[in-house]
User: Fold these one by one.
Assistant:
Number 1:
Amino acid sequence: MSKAEATSARPDHIPVLLNEVVKALGPKEGGNYVDGTFGAGGYTTALLKTAECVVWAIDRDPETLARGEVLAKLFPGRLHLVQGRFGDMAELLSDQDVKAVDGIALDLGVSSMQIEDRSRGFSFLRDGPLDMRMERSGRSAADIVNTMSEKELADIILTYGEERHARRVARAIVEARQDRPFSRTLRLADVIRAEVRRSHDGIDPATRTFQALRILVNDELGELERGLQSAERLLRPGGILAVVSFHSLEDRIVKTFLKARSGMASRPSRHAPASLSPAQNVATFTALSRRPITPRDAETTKNPRARSARLRIAERTSAPCLTAVTGGLA
Ligand SMILES: C[S@@+](CC[C@H](N)C(=O)[O-])C[C@H]1O[C@@H](n2cnc3c(N)ncnc32)[C@H](O)[C@@H]1O
């Protein structure tokens, strides 16, 4: 593969909202950019090809990042592969003596390669170990379904999966594990399918419960909150943050954060003094799109995974970082 031919570390992977993300970041010569979710390197490759810039590519999955070595050779000195979580990006880059960057892209969730690799246990269509750990360490999905109480399971399936039949699914899981513990993805999918009927839109009944387990196993929402705060610390004034999310739980966190940080959050009470929340007075971001950007029909036809994608873009102001002031999402 030559530099001109390169589109990613995996030519079969189609990056979502690629043109929109690259246009938003507007890479320029000598600039430093963070691709916080390297995946197949689609965004990274496009940034490197658009301008003589430097990309710090982060992925928490060591196997995924290893595939980036091919790209790193094509762009010597310009692509730095960093294993870790984007929630820690300010620290990860500080370790490399990078204190501020010009743009950050986050393309949330798992990649098609991770889903298609049955040994990772993300898919309810392919049999594999019930794992779902992006980093291959910590608590697996099997540990969760085999040990959590019925109530806890129901709560996470409802909250993270937005599954209306969460109680019924949790009860069925607890009954089935009394027979023998869960270890494979297809057995869990079959237990769920026996409880929940396929909806009119044809979505597999296992989709929502698998989503809930994946979010919990990888603490994806906590990571997103930390990632946004880390981006606030790392972006230089004028730097751009672009986040692509795939479900309402993620998009809500991004939207709430940007609203609070751009001074648009509503006051807790109309009687409360305007100075109550620092986020309302010292905007650290300017939202560049009021509504999220969604893919065009041509993209969703080519890549159905893009259907639920939403891109939010914001520009860092020169106001000091708020995280230390509010200690979290305001
Ligand atoms: C949807 S894919 C990204 C695809 C990429 N934009 C491309 O064009 O090839 C998401 C990637 O982010 C990684 N990931 C998810 N959460 C992460 C986190 N908190 N920190 C670092 N990497 C993460 C996953 O391992 C996966 O490889």
Number 2:
Amino acid sequence: MFTYRIDAEVELRLLELQHLQEFFDLSYGSRTHIGEWMFWIGEDYTLEDARRQIQLSLDRFVANDGFDAGIWFRGELAGCIRYRYLDWKHKNTELGYWLGAKFQGHGLVTKACVAMIDHALGELSLHRVEIRCMSENLRSRRVPERLGFTQEGVVRQVRWRRDHYDDHIVYGMLADEWQARKRQTISSEREG
Ligand SMILES: CC(C)(COP(=O)(O)OP(=O)(O)OC[C@H]1O[C@@H](n2cnc3c(N)ncnc32)[C@H](O)[C@@H]1OP(=O)(O)O)[C@@H](O)C(=O)NCCC(=O)NCCS
């Protein structure tokens, strides 16, 4: 239903049922890596679970309450990024993301976040974007940190992981901060 080209190699596409098999193969193939931090996937994850997940995302899209987009890299589905919800009253949203194991290290999620933040704080006129990472998920935490988010707080012991409760680190970006950051990037590119 929509596609958004980020650069010559990377494109976002609304996740649809036509992508079911590719989505299942990618997520199930990386279940150990993803399941380390995200709890919707494990050994017992099925094609039917994947179908339900895509349908729920499409339902949210129709209800104007967010959506999941696939991240395509060189024509292959590499991962997903989502607005977990769109809070129109308070004008905020939260991003979630994951990549298939072999697609890490190319900057794909960082680029996808930039596109989704631009869209949220630009076209959608939202005020705030949040990203929550488990405190031990250092690779994920590097994404909002790389993008200049502010670490705002800690939700203590909110997720059970293996043998203990882990904290959530809450990162936030406000619309005026994002615009200032973009202006700064543009002026330093001109100077450089
Ligand atoms: C979290 C996760 C998406 C991060 O993946 P990632 O590949 O590190 O993130 P990006 O796609 O933004 O890539 C950044 C990496 O690519 C490198 N890179 C290469 N080109 C780049 C570019 N143009 N821009 C930014 N980074 C680039 C960066 O140096 C960085 O590597 P480093 O952290 O070793 O320095 C991935 O580890 C994952 O899917 N984990 C499991 C699921 C999960 O934890 N989801 C998040 C739950 S909160």
